[in-house]
Amino acid sequence: MSENLTPETEPAQPVAPAARQGKTSSRVIEHFVAPLEDTPLAAVDKVDNTAAPLSLWADAWRNLRKQPLFIISALLIVLVVVVAGFPQWFASVDPTSCDLANSAEGARAGHPLGFTLQGCDVYSRMIYGTRASLTVGVLTTIGVLVIGGTMGALAGYYGGWLDAILARLGDIFFALPLILGAIVINQLPAFRDNRSVWTVVVALVLFGWPQIARITRGAVLENRNADFVTASKALGLSRFSALVRHVIPNSLAPIIVVASISLGTFIVAEATLSFLGLGLPGSVMSWGNDISAAQPQVRNNPGVLLWPALALSITVLSFIMLGDALRDALDPKARKR
Amino acid sequence: MVMFTLRRFLQLIPVFFGATLLVYFLVFATPGDPIAALSGGKPMAPAVEAALRAQYNLDQPFWVQYGLYLKNLVTLNLGQTFSGQEVSAVIARAYPVTARLAIMALAFEAIFGVFFGVIAGLRKGKLFDSTVLVASLIVIAVPTFVLGFVLQLVVGVQLGWARPTVSGAAPWNELILPALVLGLVSLAYVIRLTRASISENMNADYVRTATAKGLSRRRVVVVHILRNSLIPVVTFLGADLGALMGGAIVTEGIFNVPGVGNLLYQAILKGESATVVAVVSLLVIVFVVANLVVDLLYAWLDPRIRYV
After folding, report:
1. Which chain A residues are closer than 8 Å to B276 by Cβ?
2. Please, which pLDDT band fits residue B112 given cuts at 50, 70 and 90?
3. Do the Cβ atoms of A180 and B150 come within 8 Å?
4. Which domain holds residue A119?
5. Segment B101-122 mean pLDDT
6. Domain for residue A126, yes or no?
7. What is the ipTM metric for this complex?
8. How far away is chain B from the Cα of A325, in angstroms, using its nearest Cα?
9. Residue A141: which CATH number?
10. Alpha-carbon distance A121 to A94, whole Å?
11. Virtual torsion, Cα A188, A191, A192, A194, nearest 10 deg
12. Which chain A residues have any C-beta within 8 angstroms of a chain B C-beta?
């Protein structure tokens, strides 16, 4: 039903832009009748309305393939994921075998970035630190999507008292800024004594979900009264099934954009927490921990701090750029201009 | 507008109670006994323990505790630090420093952010625009503490243009560098927001009308485009002031600024629950009120959103 509706309105549209183009290209406006001969009606009739219309995602993909911003960020993300999965492919030196004889030494063969104060290889630690940072970023984003997405979708779709309650609940958690909330959580004895990737993820999810909930609620609200939802209900789908099968898939675009950018901010948040000594435990190799450990030596040996910071920044940058590229691609209205 | 203000105020009430309850619950009532933690997990004399529990009202049921805490919060009776100072006095000493830092950071990001954002927006797709966009992305991606360390090292130590750390009184001139670091990330957002807003409004009908009736380009940009484009920017700056007033734990830590953020961080490290709860509650209130003001400001600047 919904598929039949769109092609009917489609053939009428190509006439207008084409006619306007013909007019402006000639620059001199001699008569006020649209030059219809530029687009013969036969050409319009030839438009194949049996072919499946391009979906938003296929359209976005065609646009993305040509965007340098997307290609660069996607390649960087693939690289980061591979490094996180198989650090041994990129570094042959064991990051935990540290020799105090090498303390704060400069670069030399086999150790391109020199050594930390403890005599560990900076390059190797940078490579092996990828996994913890990326894990926190990905797990937090998944958690935020599950909790925030569910809350936002239910609030936007059902409305009424459920919306009021969930919106206030979101406001309460939103009142504590992400880092502040995560600090408060992580200083609890229960968290401080069992620090791991999971405690950091829980703390970040707890204060990160309202943002996704707001975005999801807005997107669902926009779609819940759309014709295709009414149609699916008319065909006998239950209210809940209509939400899951039609409303949510059509609301995904803005959620994915925000999730991609948030992933970057969660990685920064983890590094900030680790930097403050309230994030990952010292036994876990992470960029935040290494930056934190290098801090007292920053004046004598800035490289030890700057290399993991560079890795962190490039990773975060690539997720933000991906989000930016997706935003442009998934919003055809903004793109045409 | 009156109805909108009233409704927004009513919405504030559950948020205030909920957020303070959350903070209180997180610090005092979670598994892991704060009193036991005070003594480092070692057994404590029962009389001392009972006295401590009474001091923090921990011998009362949870709801009574929360009520007492709210009462103390409203009457500004915030308890004492471990060294016997009044928490309210400590906060009163730290707050002006944070406020000074926040105002300087805000001025920096407002002036430079709008300036660069307007030029980039007017020249969308040109070299200046792309340079500013890439630079803003990089600033967003680099964590604040890295920016802080690099600027401290380069400007403070190597070039010697500014004091690397702030002295006790924290005068305005010493706060320039920390304010710069604090404002940089928001600066990037202000630039992007202004740019997007300007380039969106450039194609609006009223701009074409203004141009068509013969106004100079300068007047069209300053009077027509800018005034309409700055609405989202102003609200962002307002919300950001609320966030900045909450103290910058990281920046204040790096530059040793004796502000609220530093106070909170030290209190957390030392496990001073009374100070932590007091400061966090205060910050939550500041943040919530700032958001309320911003919402009202937005509604006042742009009447369309009142009816949504």
Report:
1. 184, 187
2. very high
3. no
4. 58-334
5. 91
6. yes
7. 0.77
8. 12
9. 1.10.3720.10
10. 8
11. 150
12. 168-169, 171-173, 175-177, 179-180, 183-185, 187-190, 193, 264, 268, 271-272, 275-278, 291, 295, 298-299, 302, 305-306, 309, 312-314, 316-317, 320-321, 324, 337
Cα(A266)–Cα(A280) distance, rounded to whole angstroms? 13
pLDDT of residue B176: 86
Distance from CA of B160 to the nearest CA of A (A): 13
pLDDT of residue B106: 92
Out of A278, A302, A317, the one facing B138 most closely (by C-beta) is A317
Whole-angstrom Cα distance, residue A30 to residue B234?
46
Task: Give how far B268 is from chain A: nearest CA, Å.
Answer: 7
Residue type, A307: W
Distance CA A269, CA B156 (A): 26
Q: Which residues have C-beta within 8 Å of that of residue A118, sequence separation ≥ 6?
A: A98, A100, A103, A293
Examine residue A197 and state whether it is found in any structural domain, yes or no: yes
Q: What number of H helices and E strands is found in chain A?
A: 16, 0
Query: Could you report the per-residue pLDDT of B147-164, keeping only the tens digit for each?
Result: 888 888 888 777 877 777
| Residue A322 maps to a domain | yes
Q: How far apart (Å, rounded) are the C-alpha atoms in residues A287 and A130?
A: 7
Best CA proximity match to B57, nearest among B43, B46, B44, B72:
B72
Subunit contact B288:A302, Cβ cutoff 8 A? no
Number of residues in chain A: 337
If you measure CA to CA, which chain A residue comes closest to B142? Answer: A313
Instruction: Name residue, tokens 């830092």.
Output: B101
Task: Calculate mean pLDDT across residues B85-113.
Answer: 88
Q: How many domains does chain A have?
A: 1
DSSP 3-state of B86:
strand
Residues A171, B253: C-beta atoms closer than 8 Å: no
Contacts of B5 (CB under 8 A, 6+ apart): B296
The first and second tokens of residue B112, run together, are: 């430079």
Does residue A244 belong to any structural domain of this protein?
yes
Long-range CB contacts (within 8 A, 24+) of A222-226:
A222/A251, A223/A247, A223/A250, A223/A251, A224/A156, A224/A157, A226/A250
Residue in A177, A278, A317 closest to B137 by CB: A317
CB contact under 8 A, A172 and B138: no
Model's pTM, two decimal places? 0.79
Q: Out of A272, A295, A321, whose CB is closest to B149?
A: A295
